[in-house]
Amino acid sequence: MQVWRFGDNIDTDAIIPGRFLTINDPAELATHAFEGTRDEFSMQAKQGDIIVAGRNFGCGSSREHAPLALAGAGIVMVVAESFARIFYRNSINVGLLPVICPRAQEISETDKVVPHLDKGYLDVSGKILPTEPVPEFLRRIIDTGGLVAYAKTIRSEDLCIK
User: Fold this and answer.
1) 125 φ/ψ angles, rounded to the nearest 5 degrees
2) Is the pTM of this model over 0.90?
3) Distance between CA 13 and CA 18 in Å, rounded?
4) What gap in Å lies between CA 87 and CA 95, rounded to an integer?
């Protein structure tokens, strides 16, 4: 699991430039992720990698393409001090795990990060960094592959008020 480190206020245009918004395939979007910002990302990111960032990750437009490109690149988790609200929700919708860690800036690209989200922390090369809890129902949506996949698992009788 490689760590890709970014700073504060990384906007959705940096994650996936607007000229690629006609693409909807996650794998194809991934080939353009961070183009013009960090060009090596699309060539070197692999399944299981994580992104670590500062404050306000995913600010800018409300495009779902940004977390979709990251998921297509194999990113399984984005750890940040804070997220733009719409990016956070879009991440869940596409099955990408957003984790709020107030001390995310302490994580470097050479660290080994082991999440213990059920216990509320990340083990970062032996250092414990607390995280905000990810509610169980959101984890179920993410683990299922996103909101659409999760909705397909719900039986209509489960939606009835009893």
Assistant:
1) 50, 45
2) yes
3) 6
4) 12
